[in-house]
Design brief:
Elements: E1 3-12, H1 17-32, E2 41-48, E3 59-65, H2 68-76, H3 78-86, E4 91-101
Antiparallel strand pairs: 1-3, 1-4, 2-3
């Protein structure tokens, strides 16, 4: 079975390291609350950058889905849409990569 990996990286809002850390914590908690709530979402991990290099994103969302259909459904799932609305304005730049791992164990 193919696994779909969906990776999103963000810069978060804030004028200081402390306000960016607060924003990152809110984003992390909101996405982690989606575990077990989205059909086909097999794995979810949220990481916050500690490197502090100027070209780094502040955080990353790493997810695995059992199919493209599950990823598509996640994008429209009410819980995911609620999180997106709740976090509006906290994420100021977004980068995304989706790819297939053919024959991955699900």
């Amino acid at each position: 079975m193919d696994t779909i990996k969906h990776i999103v990286m963000w810069k978060v809002a804030g004028d200081s390291a402390q306000t960016r850390a607060t924003s990152a914590t809110k984003v992390k908690r909101a996405f982690e609350a989606l575990r077990g709530r989205i059909p086909g979402l097999q794995y979810l991990e949220v990481g916050v950058d500690f490197s502090a290099v100027d070209y780094a994103c502040d955080m990353v969302l790493y997810t695995e889905f059992d199919s493209q259909a599950s990823l598509d459904a996640y994008a429209k799932h009410p819980d995911h849409l609620r999180v997106r609305e709740e976090l509006e304005g906290l994420r100021i730049a977004r980068y995304q990569v989706d790819y297939v791992v053919a024959g991955a164990k699900a």
